[in-house]
Amino acid sequence: MISEFTGLLSTVVFLPLAVAVVIAVFVKGDRVVRIFAGAAVLVELALSAVVMLRYDAAKGGVQLIDRVEDWIPVESLEVQYFLGVDGLSAPLVLLTGLLGMAAVFASWGIKHRVREYFVWLLILQTAVMGVFTALDFLLFFLLWELELVPMFFLISIWGSGRREYSAMKFLIYTFLGSAFMLVGILALFFMTGTFDMTALPTEIAAAAPIIPMGVLFTLLFIAFAVKLPVFPLHTWLPDAHTDAPTAVSVMLAGVLLKMGGYGMIRVSVTMFPDVISEAAQALAIFGVINVLYGAVVTMRQTDLKRLIAFSSISHMGYVLIGIAAVTGPEASTGLTGAAMQMFTHGTITGLMFLLVGLVYEKAHTRYIPDLGGLATRMPVLASAFLLAGLASLGLPGTSGFVAEILVFLGAFPAWSWATALSAFGIVITAGYILWMVQRTMFGPAKERFGNTRDATVAEMVPIFVLAAAVIGVGVYPSIISDVFAGEMAAVAEALRGPGLLALNN
Amino acid sequence: MTAHDIYLLSPEIAVASLAGLLLLLDLVVRRKGYLAPLALVGLIVPLALCILLWLDLDGGGAIRNEGILSGSLVVDRFSLFFKLLLLPVAAVVILMSGAYARKGGRFEAEFYALVLFSTSGMMLLASSVELITIYVALELTALPIAALAAFMPEGRSSESGLKFLILSGVSSALLLYGMVLVYGFTGSTFLPDVAARISEVGLDVDLPFGSYALLLGAVLIIAGFGFKITAFPFQMWAPDVYEGAPTSVTAFLSVASKAAGFAVILRVFYVAFPLESLSMEWSAIFAVLAALSMTVGNLIAIAQSNIKRMLAYSTIAHAGYIMVGLAAIAARVDSGQPDAGPSGVLFYLAGYAVTNLAAFAAVIAISARTGTDEIGGFAGMYRRAPLLAAVMAFSMISLTGVPPTVGFMAKIYIFGAAVNAGLMWLAVVGVLNSVISAYYYLRVVKVMVLSDPTDESRVSASLPVGAALAVTTAGILAFGLYPAPLIEFARTAVSVLL
């Protein structure tokens, strides 16, 4: 019983999986495996761009629907196969396409168990694409869980350092979060009788809660908070990042963290308008802690990857603050800022990890005091590094600026002090970014880097694509932000509905 | 007993006759290698008869259910579900058993015959609606298993068999005592009559279970059955018996014996104690036992270094998950789907069967080569046997409950049933336990994938074990992606209980 089927999103979600199966079963030889994987992600990038282009932001709402209604047709578990994109998910699909491509090309030099590596990387991309497009809550959860398996293997087999410990820690944290989420999802289902995420906001408002809504909200929020990550649930992230191979760090920082923010906006905000208004203050506080704590800890790092990992925690704090803006008059600006922050941080940090991976590959160290003066040996890498750094600290003209300014504009009317405090995070960010770039790239050239080379042409492809995204969105932000803004305006509008009025009276 | 009665009982008769035939042929046939294939082919007969009976049932009451052996047995969708589950399980166990049966020397035929006798007992158990018949069927199930557990000439096999025999005896005694109390209170051993008498006599609302006799009876019955399903606190025997028994017998115990145990529990409690006041009481007991079984099983499993002991504690934990479905009776809240709990039990049992059989088949194939059941023996197995390692990893993922496996769907369904029945806390305990279990299941995967192998020689499964692996793995994946038919099947089966 097919009710609607465009096919585009199903292709986007399952193409990587299909190629992964083909590689696992048929393809022999590392070279051919690389070519298959590379072709797959290029097609995937093109398809995700098509999704973004075909999404009509003026019309809004859920589009490009793939829906089969009776996947599991039991009253107690009525699950649909339901994919679709709206203004929130369409740019994130594009982001996943971008970073999925970057991840595969960043892995060109993998020598160890090549076939398996690309199989897992492609499965990971299917899972993440699925999370952003699934509109049935159980399907969403299924894909959310599916992502654990490839991540576990990718970190534990191809990682470095204490990779097994980090992989297990990542797995336990995420699994624990999603365990709570599962209970929340089931409880929502028995309240409303549906897993349909598009119908849930209205159904929840109409249904009688079987457990207090605050508890339900918390169950779901914990999973997203682990993923984002929110202090104090963040400790898995530095370990996972430090020990993961480059491409996995790119995916982890670039898109996996965004699953948390996406879940918060898609579920916590739109389905729980009353609770989010009450929780907004806590979100603002946690946001400030994330921003400042993350930034201060980042200052202390000497390992390049660990440094960027902690800076991600700091940057994700802005997503929380943007979401906390829901109680203020500029709710839609704040939410748009949060969504923009996810997109821009994805491209910027993806680029950063890509560059760090290349630096490590060429200089054989990530220890900052040992580096220095690399700009003379690798000008292209150094320029890109500087660009990513400047974007990360929110320099106007780069995409980082747009996102942060929107967050501040949105959050200030509601939480002026929190916004003011978090704006101070930018100062610290400028400190650690500039310090890091100066200590690694500039200064006197060191003799032992005499033989290091700049990026090869193949390595430059993902760098240029991501750098173009960073500058492009910085110069002309509305190409992305308009899509977000349309959807977020609708979300904010819904928030102003009966729920918030009741609270104010 | 009429010819029609014989037809109704024909699957059990066919299985028992097949066992007898194997024993007889053993006396005359020289080449024992034909016995296992014969047993497999022979199992098609009872399977076909079960399907025939199921079709007759669908034909709109063409089948006469009352009166087999004075009404102590019944052939309905519920019992046929379990027979259709147990027969393939027995077939897979026979596929996996080759190496162990041959080690028994000239007793090869006896091995298969004992598996089949035990299976026929389990099938009777699923059909029984009378306490004494239940007891007899239970003994028919358990005694062959005790012999099978002690089958190996070396190692801890005889200890395993003896432990099983003694503890099985103790649990039977508890069960009998409980049955006596129920009989004393109601004056009947027939489950429907028990229910009728209870409502006739009336219950004291202030007492748990309405009367001390019934309370003690029900608790003792739960204790007796708790032994079969390895529920905490009746699980002590499981690790030692699982470790010592031949691995295929361990698989049989963990899957078939457990399924039959749950079949009879569902039957007894849904048919004999259906009153709402009573069902609230036993559901509460099962809820507490479920939470304890999961937690104890999972926590102790973490510390295990022997794969069979680990799977023994894992099976205790899974008994806990399945008991969630027992606790999830719909009486508690009026909304939702009334059959979610019991159909969840059936669905989970089927999913657990394919998953655990796959895991044990992989263990058999691997330990046949490495000669050890230690988890350390799995080191680097992905290099020595990529396919076997992949199947093992897949079954571990299914046991953890991660998609796209049947373990995931089964957990979702059964925890959903708990939420549906207002047991939110139990669902929370369940999912937290899944997280704990991820640690030790994935440690096996980790050892296979990350550790360096002790030697580089290839490991491969024999043809029958390979076939068992293929069938079960296909089951894990198929029901994980499209569970709807199996869920529907389970729901049809439990409709007779409600």
Number of E-state strands of chain A = 3
- Tell the overall outline of chain B: globular
Sum up the overall morphology of chain A in one term.
Answer: globular
N-end to C-end Cα span of chain B:
29 Å
- Please provide the ordered H/E string of secondary-structure elements of chain B: HHHHHHHHHHHHHHHHHHHH
Biggest sheet of chain B, open or closed, and with what strands and sense? none
- How is the largest sheet of chain A built, in terms of strand order? 1-2-3
Q: What ranges of chain A have pLDDT less than 50 throughout 5 or more consecutive residues?
A: 499-505
Q: What's the helix and strand layout?
A:
The complex is a heterodimer of chains A (505) and B (498).
Chain A: E1 2-5, H1 8-25, H2 30-54, E2 63-74, E3 77-85, H3 89-106, H4 114-133, H5 137-146, H6 148-158, H7 163-192, H8 200-206, H9 213-227, H10 236-243, H11 246-271, H12 273-299, H13 304-324, H14 331-363, H15 379-392, H16 399-411, H17 416-441, H18 457-475, H19 478-495, H20 498-504
Antiparallel strand pairs in A: 1-2, 2-3
Chain B: H1 3-28, H2 35-42, H3 44-58, H4 77-103, H5 108-127, H6 131-149, H7 157-186, H8 191-201, H9 212-228, H10 237-244, H11 247-272, H12 276-302, H13 307-327, H14 340-370, H15 381-384, H16 386-400, H17 406-420, H18 424-450, H19 463-481, H20 484-494
Helix pairs in contact in B: 1-2, 1-3, 1-5, 3-4, 4-5, 4-11, 4-14, 4-19, 4-20, 5-6, 5-11, 6-7, 6-11, 7-8, 7-9, 7-10, 8-11, 9-11, 10-11, 10-13, 11-13, 11-14, 12-13, 12-18, 13-14, 13-17, 13-18, 14-16, 14-17, 14-19, 14-20, 16-18, 17-18, 17-19
